[in-house]
Amino acid sequence: MRILVVEDDLEAQRYLVNGLKEAGHVVDDAADGDTGLTLALSRPYDCAIIDRMLPKLDGLNVVAEMREHGNTMPVLFLSALSEVDDRVKGLKAGGDDYLTKPYAFVELLARIDALMRRRAPAAVKTKLAVGELELDLLTRTATREGQAIDLQPREFRLLEYLMRHAGQVVTRTMLLESVWEYHFDPQTNVIDVHISRLRAKIDKGFSTPLLHTVRGAGYMIRAAK
Amino acid sequence: MRRNNEKFHWAQRVLHTQAFRITLIFVFFYVVTATALVAFTWWNSQRSLDNQTDQTIEAEVAGLREQYQRLGVLGLSDVINGRVAQHGSGLYLLLSPSHSVLAGNLVEFPTSATMIDNYVIEFDYKRSMQGEEVTRTARGQAFTLQGGFFLLVARDITDQKMSRKKFQTTLPWSVGLMLLLGIAGGVLMSRNLLRRLDVITRTSSEIVAGDFSRRVPMTTGHDEFDTLAENLNVMLERNERLMKGMREVVDSVAHDLRTPLNRLRNRLEDMQRKLNPEDPHLDDIDSAVAETDRLIGTFNALLLIAEADSGMTRGSMTPIDLSAIVADIADLYAPLAEEKEIGLEVAPSGVLTIEGNRSLVSQALANLIDNAIKYTPAGGHIWVSAGETPAGIDLIVADDGPGIPVEDRARVLERFVRLEKSRNSPGTGLGLSLVAAVARMHEAKLSLGDNAPGLKTTISFPRTFVKKGARE
Questions:
Q1: Beta partners for residue A2, in sequence order
Q2: A143, CA 20 to 30 Å: which among A29, A113, B121, B379?
Q3: Chain B interface mutation, best of A52, A156, A190, highest count of B Cβ atoms under 10 Å
Q4: Is 0.80 topped by the overall pTM?
């Protein structure tokens, strides 16, 4: 995937670019808003990672300009500013996601994967399937190998989110943000407990586990190889 | 209907103003003093008029007595007739001992007379004026002369009486008029004052709501209200500058600390990636990353407290439903509580809308429940509820754990304070401080009470932050 990184802190930029390249992406970089905007408008990218505060042209304005030119590529904002108001401002300006520095690289990677996946024009699905596990979005029921699985509404949403991102790492904060719509950092492992309950329902009694813990990152649901 | 209600409301407000009360008191004293003064002056002038009449009559009587002594009864009759012929204002009557009229312009001795003083009487008499007979009032002296003759000397006082009567009827009316004008003036004055004050109140509540750029508008009158407005505006200007400064400080502290923290974490991650999974140093790096994350967590919590306290987040307040937040957060923590074998019970409630910041209120509630789960032993209970009170809405988290001793309750709300026995459990020591900051930001009261046994934490949101009927 082609990714544009606009970041003025050169050391942070270097780590970011290296990390993304190691993850198999093709990366262009820019250190100020003007250059970033020119690149964004002249080349096709799958995703852009843009710092919120940039010299010459502010990150918010870069994205606003991009959107004005009809450019719809997914944008993830990186911000070192304080949080509460800023996230709203970033998303209002046309950003698709928002990450506060310092961030964990796996978190960033998971998020841009999710962003790029979202971009792929998926047909409106009424059923999701991972291996033998099926989720019917209309009847709100889940089955595995034909056996019905009884899920609470919140568990259903959790599983739906995981299955929509099947094969991708999903972090705890991503789950908290999209399933519970909260943007704070719970002090304890609340998400882990939800996951282990879900795991007990969908994996227990079956030969191959589908829901995996990715060490130091989060979770992933995928079909057995 | 609505308009009427508004008018009624307005009128009520006017009646309750200080200005109106002051006016009422003023009007009362003014009316009492003015009435007393007018009445006294009137009474005095009446008295001196009466005195004058009495003195005139006294003098006349003395003259007539002298005439009588010198000239006898015939001479006296002549003098009296002479005076009557002059058409003066005097009234005379001279009677013989057998009560026949000898001289004078009164036809008979008055049948009914009021004794005012020794000799002095007031009486009604009849007199023909322009062909009509009218009853008039007179005041004078009646006495017996030597020899049994009877003399009455008087002056007509009908006009005085009339004006006295007129005064008596007009006095209550003028008092009433004074009261009416006074009250009307009071209402006008209070309305004026209210209007000016309302402008200031409106501006200040807009500022409280987060719009720091508001200023009190001034008139061209340069009166004392404008002076007040000017002073307020200077103060507001300074406040806004301070808030802006605070915001800049928070932002630059955030930026200047986050950037190096970010590099630090990047480097550690880079090492993690580069090291062979079997490398013995990997564990050290893992714990360095975990330590960095704890540092970041503490820093973020401090920043959030600073933000909540600085009022920076005031602009991000929207109507939020507390019972939905209670349900959501309880749902989030339910499995954790269950895993610890703690019963997490949520009291159901209807929609309870307040003006607030959803993220911060949720986080505050999460911190409280998190704490409760942390400190309540297995088999315990936690109760979460939101409910309306006369003063507003109370958000309550209670447990039957060990609780907090009374003497420590105030202290645990301070930053970084952790009680001795909880030193070794994870946490930043900022959880309750954040709850306190969020409460302050919403002008809510945070109180730690005894749940006998256990801790009962209450956040009382005031009525002003409660949106009645707002459903969004």
A1: A26
A2: A113
A3: A190
A4: no
